[in-house]
Structure to design on (832 residues):
């Protein structure tokens, strides 16, 4: 089944507001297994609303319109839709009394423009709004279904799944097949390299989408089937094939985050970590503390930006800093070992590097980062060379550090 | 002048990604005083791209298309646009060599699919991409201008204002009167309160836009005039009026960030700061180190998550933690004083609170945060009660801490 979304409002076409309704509704359609043929935003303008309907309706079986149902003068969606289909308007007395009751219950002053919200095109089915004053309505036109609802995002988030989706499922019963969706999150390969690596995999009808989220790449697999088990079987089969080729780059699935996976592994193994950050400036610790209950596994985080703090707080000898520099493998190793020892944690993780834009040299250009992990027995250290701006160097270095920690915890590190 | 925006990508119509490009470009058009007649999103689908062009082009003078210029199989925008206008494709050797050079410079493995990014429709003007590998292109069709650029949001944010907008201004010189734009960044007032406060100000033709960016509110003033001086005069006059009413909530202008303003003040006064964070988990230090040269003013940052680390690293007595709790005014003050003293910095900034979702009590519910600032003579402390989720509590608390530091540095703190 093909669907369309039209969002209406001058605030959308002026860029004043981020249109979140389109993405929300599109995702809901997608999860139903319904294709979204097109989405449009137009201003509060009768001609443009008609143009949008003339364009989207022929391409689709069902269209959802949001916005322009309020009481103010620029809310003209109902009038525009009625005109587009040559339908007369009428005032629904039940709805009018309902709105007046809301006003009196909350002690609001009634003004005549609010009566607009009780006006509907003849033949419309009224859609109750469980989250606001303005009701929506639906029309059946040439076998297609048009649902018109208010544009306030919190109202859409309630009204769409509770009212509009059931209406569409009733209207198109043959289109309600099961959809299985699995997201694979990768780090360390470019989008093109991922694409190349999975070329030739028999996806047998499983849809695949690429979603870069710096510094990660997300692959979304989806399959539709009459039965839940059959849909999952196909998605899982494809996911396994991809895992065979790219397993070492996959760090999480679906809603999991890298910090969430690391936190889960630390809790599972009963290990604690402490962090000494130089170039990442606190970002690793910030990410690790985004997970509820992080005090169980995170002992402390130190942003040892100055040489003095590296010596005072981590015990890195002045001579090492002088001889090898603050950005060096030697310093990174001693930072990881130092924070581990002084915090009394099981693991110590450390970063030192040059985030830029200044501070680079020929031997150590901007983007040079050393990351070390100490467990009291062994200390691993890796050197990275990044070509991003300051903020992105911080982000990708924090990612590489958390990936190193994850690989240590899963035992992958030894096989590298 | 009428403009249109078409964003292309299955990730947009599936709801997988929030389409930020449309809002960004619409806002830029709006600032130019150009109307946005319609915006559309369609999937990576040749037929739909042609349909979208057929719809949007007749309604507009200029159309910007984003997305689908990458190297992977689903990137088909160039082919679709060429077909829509019956233009043959060719490979631009200069661009091909440029892309290959990027690959070899960064030691990336060349794969043949990357050559796709050097293919253009005959007659296209190539648009350099200052932020990524894939170039864009523009076409002139029946007096209308079509600009096609990659869809990666960071690339759009650089390429649109630096490449596309100048191109459009050159193409439509009569539409390019001087535009003065000033952004006022506010913290601490709701959108409705700002709206209320500025009601009745004579803006005399100055456009005003409202852009909430949690936890900040941005007000954008714009004026267009034949002369640069006249346009700026009008914007400045309005900005001054707003400053009279809301000055204490304005912390930055235009491209400035809060951390940038704080960094500038610290450098200007030759002061250093050290940070002890509990509930903010490293986010304050992360923000302070986003500014190049932060090692001049930031001595160290400590994420003292455990009680032990508050005692070991900051000298907070065990008795204070036992009597008042880790989340208390007493602890916050001692954290700020301790980090200042032990780091030997001029100032000490500290946070302690309950980010949630667990750990709250009746006396100290989730969202309770204490922020303290010590200068060796006096220590200030403020208590905040937030009602947001864990991540947002971290963000708004880091904002409140940096605002406190800024007010101290500007001397505003004494007048509160």
């Amino acid at each position: 089944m093909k669907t369309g979304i039209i969002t209406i409002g001058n605030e959308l076409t002026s860029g004043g507001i981020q249109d979140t309704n389109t993405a929300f509704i599109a995702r809901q359609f997608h999860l139903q297994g319904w294709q979204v043929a097109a989405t449009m935003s137009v201003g509060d303008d009768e001609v443009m609303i008609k143009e949008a309907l003339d364009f989207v309706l022929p391409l689709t079986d069902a269209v959802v319109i949001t916005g322009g149902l309020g009481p103010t003068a620029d809310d003209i969606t109902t009038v525009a839709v009625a005109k587009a289909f040559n339908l007369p308007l009428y005032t629904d007395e039940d709805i009018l009394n309902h709105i007046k009751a809301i006003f009196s219950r909350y002690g609001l002053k009634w003004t005549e423009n609010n009566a607009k919200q009780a006006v509907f095109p003849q033949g419309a089915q009224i859609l109750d709004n469980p989250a606001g004053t303005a009701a929506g309505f639906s029309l059946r036109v040439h076998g297609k279904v048009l649902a018109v609802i208010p544009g306030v995002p919190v109202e859409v988030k309630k009204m769409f799944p509770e009212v509009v989706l059931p209406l569409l499922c009733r209207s198109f019963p043959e289109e309600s097949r099961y959809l299985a969706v699995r997201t694979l999150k990768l780090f360390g390969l470019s989008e093109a390299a991922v694409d190349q690596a999975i070329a030739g995999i028999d996806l047998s009808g499983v849809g695949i989408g690429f979603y870069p989220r710096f510094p990660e790449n997300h692959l979304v697999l989806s399959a539709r089937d009459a039965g839940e088990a059959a849909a999952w079987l196909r998605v899982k089969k494809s996911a396994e094939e991809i895992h065979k080729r790219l397993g070492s780059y996959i760090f999480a699935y679906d809603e999991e985050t890298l910090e969430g996976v690391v936190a889960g592994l630390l809790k599972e193994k009963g290990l604690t970590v402490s962090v000494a950050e130089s170039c990442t400036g606190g970002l690793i610790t910030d990410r690790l503390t985004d997970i509820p209950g992080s005090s169980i596994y995170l002992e402390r985080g130190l942003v040892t930006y100055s040489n003095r703090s590296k010596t005072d707080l981590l015990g890195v000898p002045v001579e090492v800093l002088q001889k090898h520099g603050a950005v060096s493998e030697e310093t990174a190793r001693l930072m990881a070992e130092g924070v581990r020892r002084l915090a009394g944690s099981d693991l110590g993780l450390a970063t030192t590097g040059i985030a830029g834009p200044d501070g680079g040299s020929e031997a150590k250009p901007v983007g040079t980062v050393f990351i070390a992990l100490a467990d009291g027995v062994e200390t691993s250290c890796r050197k990275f060379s990044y070509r991003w701006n300051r903020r992105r160097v911080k982000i990708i270095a924090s990612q590489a550090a958390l990936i190193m920690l994850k690989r240590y915890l899963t035992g992958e590190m030894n096989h590298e």
User: Anything to note?
Assistant: Chain A touches chain B through 85 residues (CB under 8 Å). The CA atoms of residues 135 and 253 of chain A lie 39 Å apart. The domain at 178-253 of chain A is CATH 3.30.70.2860 (Alpha-Beta Plaits). Residues 390-410 of chain A form the longest helix (21 residues).
